[in-house]
Design brief:
Strand content: 15-25%
Mean pLDDT: 82
Strand order of the largest sheet: 3-2-1-6-5-4
Structural class: alpha+beta
EC number: 2.7.13.3
Oligomer: single chain
Catalytic activity: ATP + protein L-histidine = ADP + protein N-phospho-L-histidine
Protein name: histidine kinase
Radius of gyration: 45 Å
Distance between the termini: 98 Å
Shape: flat
Number of helices: 16
Organism: Deinococcus enclensis
Pfam family, one: GAF_2
């Protein structure tokens, strides 16, 4: 009989409608196996689904097969040469109209189909590009499948796959929602517990409120045990049925908790390790040596599951928080343990704080007196710091004024010395070589003195001048700086490698001075290189724009890099390379005023790299430090 008769199509449509109302993957699989296969018109079949490890197909169930016939399907690796595995991996349906041919093509399958005759269809359960499993249909009589039937069966398999995927998504969504609700409930409880435990320093009131809060949200009954002598006694007890609270106290009075006893609350208190008893059974109690009277008392309390957690704070255990359930459907788990441990830590702090409260009352007056003394001392120190700060500011201002004035006033006599030396040189002519040599030394010393005073003037101006912050395009600026180096380069060749440079915020005059110093140093210290190479590159981070000036010059020892930016600090001999030792100090001062920084790295004989970093966040003009 054709598979796609109107009656079978109607049966399948009714089945698909019921399948659409199923929201758990296991229920979908059960329905397909026990209802869908029969609705299609097959004589038997089974379903296997992809395992979580995605390396094998796991048996989900069968229809009309004996258990021993499908035992080998429990777990089948994806490398197995079975037709249903191949259909799964290829995402293609296999129609085995002749099992004789199947025995020849799939010899590994032969031992499992010795007593089977007819035809088999292996239908991969595919949604999009994802294969979820495979549905296998068997027919007792050998048959040929028309093109229409083949399409019909593929459509049915696709509907089953979509139902599996949809139910899986719904199941995951429901689980996620349940977990979120449980987590929200835990957070709400922890928030309420925290408020309860921090509201009062009265120990008894706090613990009573805690046990009432835990019941019934966490347990059917809750008790807090604190040490008293050699025993642990319940100082606070709450039960879902308040009439049962006396039973708990009678139980602990008759069976006191001895701290040194093995097992139970005593061991939890001594070891600081929680104890989870998922199910309190008579077998468990008898194994612990419980007698009939003890068993009757436990039965009266109707304890099903128990959880004991130490109240530990700052490495000291103050007591034990004990919870129990009476309902067999309410069993403590590791998840409950994590929540209760969190509550216990907070409760332990509350217990410790309550114990300390009484002691602190006696010390309160002394603490207030000490606090007042500290307050007076702080006020005195603040006044002294303010006075020192003002004095330092005045000293810095005086020093800067002195530096500016001294360097400015020194330039006039130095220029006079150089001018008179020039006049004297012209007057003497070539008459006295020794005098000319001495005059040349005077001129060189005067020139160096003029450079030093100019450097000090520049440094003083950088410190005190008002800044005009605006966007500065470093590309054109760097081109002007490089063109300005032509007189110092002379006839020698310099290979320039200048990358794309960004726009920064700052004072254009001072930024140009920074790069004139750095590029000028690179030109100077590559003087003895046959092929000088100077590279200027920029990179941007999330907070800074960094510009690097690198050369292949004489370099320096990186151990002394910190000295480079001090006034009059030089790492190379003055007779080899001219300079005042003020330029890099000026660079550092300019960068600090821009909210940036400067650093350097070098290798002796292997070149140097100087880096300046501008903040990406726009800044406004800052007063001089």
């Amino acid at each position: 009989m054709p598979l796609s008769t109107e009656e079978k199509i109607q049966d399948w449509l009714r089945f698909v409608q019921r399948l659409g109302q199923t929201d758990r993957p296991q229920d979908v699989a059960h329905a397909v196996i026990h209802e869908g296969i029969r609705a299609i018109g097959a004589d038997g079949g089974f379903m296997s689904l992809l395992s979580p490890s995605r390396t094998e197909l796991t048996f989900a169930g069968s229809y009309a097969y004996a258990p021993e016939a499908v035992a080998f399907l429990k777990s089948v690796p994806l490398t197995a040469q079975f037709p249903f595995v191949i259909a799964f991996t290829r995402r293609e349906a296999l129609f085995l109209e002749s099992l004789e041919q199947a025995r020849q093509d799939y010899p590994d399958l032969v031992p499992h189909i010795q007593n089977f005759h007819g035809s088999v269809v292996d239908l991969p359960l595919v949604v999009g590009d994802e294969a979820l499993g495979v549905l296998v249909l068997s027919f007792a009589q050998a048959r040929s499948f028309t093109a229409y039937e083949r399409v019909f069966l593929r459509v049915l398999a696709a509907q089953c796959a979509q139902a599996l995927q949809r139910s899986g998504a719904l199941h995951q969504e429901r689980r996620a929602r349940e977990q979120a609700e449980a987590l929200q409930e835990q957070f709400a409880f922890l928030a309420a517990a925290t408020q309860t435990l921090t509201t009062s320093l009265d120990l008894q009131a706090t613990l009573d409120a805690l046990t009432r809060l835990a019941v019934p949200r966490l347990a059917d009954w809750c008790a807090v045990f604190l040490p008293r002598g050699t025993q642990l006694v319940p100082v606070a007890v709450a039960h879902e049925d308040p009439a049962r609270v006396p039973l708990v106290r009678q139980f602990t009075d008759h069976y006191p908790v001895v701290i040194e006893a093995s097992g139970g609350l005593g061991e939890v208190y001594r070891s600081g390790t929680p104890q989870l008893v998922p199910a309190v059974t008579e077998e468990l109690l008898r194994a612990a040596g419980a007698d009939e009277a003890y068993l009757r008392s436990v039965r009266a309390l109707q304890i099903h599951s128990m959880l004991h957690v130490p109240l530990t704070a700052h490495g000291r255990t103050a007591g034990v928080l004990s919870l129990a359930t009476s309902d067999a459907t309410r069993t403590f788990s590791e998840a409950d343990l994590a929540v209760v441990q969190d509550v216990a830590r907070r409760a332990a702090l509350a217990v410790e704080n309550a114990h300390l409260y009484a002691t602190l009352q006696d010390e309160l007056t002394e603490r207030r007196r000490a606090q007042q003394a500290v307050t007076d001392l702080n006020a005195q120190l603040e006044r002294r710091v303010e006075e020192r700060t003002q004095a330092l500011a005045v000293a810095n201002a005086n020093l800067e004024a002195f530096t500016y004035t001294a360097s400015h006033d020194l330039r006039t006599p130095v220029r006079h010395v150089r001018s008179f030396a020039d006049l004297l040189q012209r007057r003497l002519g070539d008459a006295d070589p020794r005098a000319l040599q001495l005059l040349q030394q005077i001129q060189e010393a005067a020139s160096r003195m003029d450079e030093l005073t100019q450097g000090l003037l520049d440094l003083a101006r950088v410190t005190s001048m008002d800044l005009d912050f605006r966007p500065v395009d470093l590309g054109p600026l760097m081109q002007k700086v490089i063109e300005g180096q032509a007189p110092d380069i002379g006839p020698r060749q310099v290979q320039w490698m200048v990358g794309a440079l960004p726009v920064v915020q700052g004072d254009e005059r001072l930024i140009r001075q920074v790069f004139e110093n750095l590029v000028g140093n690179a030109v100077k210290y590559t003087r003895d290189r046959a092929e000088a190479r100077i590279e200027v590159q920029a990179e941007q981070t999330s907070t800074e724009v960094v510009v690097k000036v690198a050369d292949n010059g004489v370099g320096f020892d990186p151990r002394w890099a910190g000295k480079l930016f001090g006034v009059f600090q030089r790492l190379n001999p003055a007779d080899g390379f001219e300079g005042t030792g003020v330029g890099l100090a000026t660079v550092q001062r300019i960068m600090h005023r821009h909210g940036g920084r400067v650093w350097a790295d070098g290798v002796p004989g292997g070149g140097a790299t100087f880096c300046v970093a501008f903040p990406r966040t726009p800044v406004t003009a800052d007063p001089a430090p």
